[in-house]
Amino acid sequence: MHFVAQVYKDEQENVRDQGTQSNNITLRGYSPKMWVAPELAEVKLPVNAIAYNLCITGRDLYLERIAKPGGIGSPETWERYTGRLIDSIYKLSHALCEAYVLKQAQIKSNLETYLMKNHTKIIKSAKTEHTSVFNKINPQPNQSIVRNFDPILRKIIRSEARIASSLIDYEIGRVEGATTKGIFDEYLDFNTNVILRSPHIGFTGKVAPDFIYRHEVIGDIKTGTWQEFFIHTAVAYALAYEEHTRRDMNYGTILYPQFPRNRDIPVYHRTTIVYLDDVLRRAFKAVRDRKLQIIHDRQDPGKPDNQAKCDPGCPFITHCWENAP
């Protein structure tokens, strides 16, 4: 997550310029223009069910939530489990950084050393949090696969410590009288415990973005194969934030870590600060309305006219195409 702080700092001038255009955004979460039509008002879906736009016809949503053929749903997989682990590692690392930095007037020892000394505790906490998910994976992964994933988690912890240390050291060197608490509050202000309610946008129950940075950027952590529709999730969270708080949220980001073997830290080549303009909001609205209509009508929208248009990762591909691998 701390990478977002560095990106924000690097792109601050561009963000500031876009901020002057914020009045051009008309499709706000608190605006009736963005709310669900009255005939669909009783239909609700989780953010991910709306934003995850894998099937071009929306049949995956119908099969999972209406037809449920043979009890098929979105099964727990090693990939889904590791995605949850990564999410927790970021949040736990930030919490430990914050606790360490804020309890002292100045950092007396290397933050990276401190976090790496506690990396086993962080990883164990994350795994404990998702034990029930791991136990549902069928078939269970080989233990060597499980063990070999730990170095990836350590890369995240190391990177989070390095970025935090670098930002703090830079500001201490630049600003006379700077304190570690003041710098942390200014540059590493991540809220990872946000709960929003957004009944008019079409979301079920509680909406929980992965993080909000400085009350200005709302973010989601994604892993797996990159999909252009990932940005829908940030738009969804921004709309929920706006309805819940009646405050504008103009920016979003997708934290998308990759882990090349020749690097000892994650790389984030696709992570940027995105201005959530009306074009993106209108695109999300179209996807949302189509999916809510599918649930409302309870009618099979049909499969795409060609298997080549289907994502091979779709859990329903063998249901739609007998010859699918």
Q: In words, what does this structure look like?
A:
With 325 residues, this protein is of the alpha+beta class. The protein has one domain (2-320). 49% of the residues lie in helices and 6% in strands. It has helices at 2-10, 12-19, 47-51, 59-67, 78-102, 111-117, 119-129, 131-135, 143-174, 180-187, 231-245, 278-297, 317-320, and strands at residues 190-191, 196-197, 206-207, 211-213, 217-221, 251-255, 274-275. Strand 5, helix 11 (231-245) and strand 6 form a beta-alpha-beta unit. The protein is globular. The mean pLDDT is 90.
Q: Please report which band the strand proportion falls in: under 5%, 5-15%, 15-25%, 25-35%, 35-45% or over 45%.
A: 5-15%
The beta-strand count equals: 7
> Mean pLDDT, as a whole number?
90
Spatial order of the strands in the main sheet?
A: 1-4-5-6-7
What's the tally of helices? 13
- Give the total of domains: 1
Measured distance between first and last alpha carbons: 36 Å
**Shape field:** globular
Q: What is the N-to-C order of secondary-structure elements (H for helix, E for strand)? A: HHHHHHHHHHEEEEEHEEHH
Low-confidence stretches: none
Largest sheet: 5 strands, mixed
Tell me the radius of gyration: 21 Å
Share of helix among residues? 40-55%
Structural class computed from helices and strand pairing: alpha+beta
Describe the secondary structure blueprint for this structure.
Layout: H1 2-10, H2 12-19, H3 47-51, H4 59-67, H5 78-102, H6 111-117, H7 119-129, H8 131-135, H9 143-174, H10 180-187, E1 190-191, E2 196-197, E3 206-207, E4 211-213, E5 217-221, H11 231-245, E6 251-255, E7 274-275, H12 278-297, H13 317-320
Parallel strand pairs: 5-6
Antiparallel strand pairs: 1-4, 2-3, 4-5, 6-7
Helix pairs in contact: 5-7, 5-9, 6-9, 9-10, 11-12
